[in-house]
Design brief:
By secondary structure, the chain is of the alpha/beta class. The chain has a single domain, classed as Ribonuclease Z/Hydroxyacylglutathione hydrolase-like (Metallo-beta-lactamase, Chain A, 4-Layer Sandwich), CATH 3.60.15. It has 9 helices and 13 strands. Strands 1, 2, 3, 4, 5, 6, 7 and 13 form an 8-stranded mixed β-sheet that branches. The protein has a 5-stranded mixed β-sheet with strand order 8-9-10-11-12, covered by helices on one side. The radius of gyration is 17 Å and the shape is globular.
């Protein structure tokens, strides 16, 4: 068991922090997961798709909104449950959630916005400009986006429900947004105070533990050099490597304990130290 290297700040009440697994994608090869694959035909790790929940008494923050049934069909992903249904397993009604962080606007992080009718969405300015600007004239650049998600985002904007951020921002004590572009133009990671200290939700700043460990990015990216610099930024933000949680690695489900026996394989607690070290997880 990896012990935390930093005690929670005595002046900040800790959040409960969860990863909720809602979809998977198998049959991948090494070239699907690493920009520089030694053997592109080698089998690759599956992708797990997560949303995250930070909860402190009556404060609830949902991080990302995942994708739904139509996107799963169109992109050949296996949808295990809709994100709203995953939240319901923890007693959270998506219709009542008031604060949602969108780490970026790719299809698997910013779908199902309509399931959160009461939410205010937090987004980086650069991400909004990229997803609705001239870069989207390039079919490859717009591939990770879903036009219907972007339309839903625009509707939320015109309804006065988007809060833009430029760079790092503390939303409430113990809950920070950090701009780490590279995978997308305006990706933001989330840093949360928990009972084991600060935990950094990397989102797609690193898909797998191994992307960061090998300095070998996931092949869907906006700026490779910026993405590589982002690895150093994640390290600066976290008390240790074991306090960084990647965005799509199935190893997260092995490393952290389930929220309950009934939720094994569905929801894990990230505010508890992982049972495996970073080195073991990054193999």
């Amino acid at each position: 068991m990896t012990e935390p290297t930093e005690e929670p700040d005595a002046g900040i009440a800790p959040f409960e922090l969860y990863a909720l697994r809602y979809a998977v994608h198998g049959g991948r090869t090494a070239k699907d997961n690493f920009l520089h694959a030694d053997d592109p035909h080698e089998a690759g790790e599956n992708l797990d798709y997560f949303i995250w929940l930070a909860r402190r008494e009556d404060e609830v923050f949902v991080i990302d909104t995942g994708f739904g049934i139509e996107a799963a069909k169109e992109r050949g992903r296996t949808l295990l449950r809709e994100p709203k249904d995953a939240l319901a397993l923890l007693g959270v009604d998506a219709r009542e959630v008031s604060q949602v962080v969108l780490t970026h606007l790719h299809y698997d992080h910013a779908g199902t916005l309509g399931h959160f009718p009461s939410a205010r969405f937090h987004l980086q300015v650069d991400e909004a400009g990229h997803a609705t600007g001239p870069c989207m004239c390039d079919a490859k650049a717009r591939g990770p986006f879903d036009v219907e998600n972007i339309v839903a985002y625009i509707r939320s904007l015109y309804a006065g429900r988007i809060e833009f951020h430029r760079g790092d921002r503390e939303l409430v004590p113990g809950f920070w947004l950090h701009s780490i572009p590279g995978h997308s133009a305006g990706l933001q990671a989330v840093r949360v105070m928990t009972r084991r200290g600060w935990v950094v939700l990397a989102s797609d700043a690193t898909h797998f533990y191994a992307n960061m460990e090998r300095q070998n990015p996931f092949p869907v990216l906006f700026d490779e050099a910026a993405l590589i610099r982002g690895y150093s930024r994640l390290i600066e933000l976290a008390p240790s490597l074991d306090h960084i949680v990647p965005g799509h690695d199935p190893a997260v489900m092995r490393a952290y304990p389930p929220a309950s026996t009934e939720l094994e394989g569905i929801v894990v607690r990230l505010d508890v130290a992982p049972a495996l070290t970073w080195e073991e997880l990054a193999r």
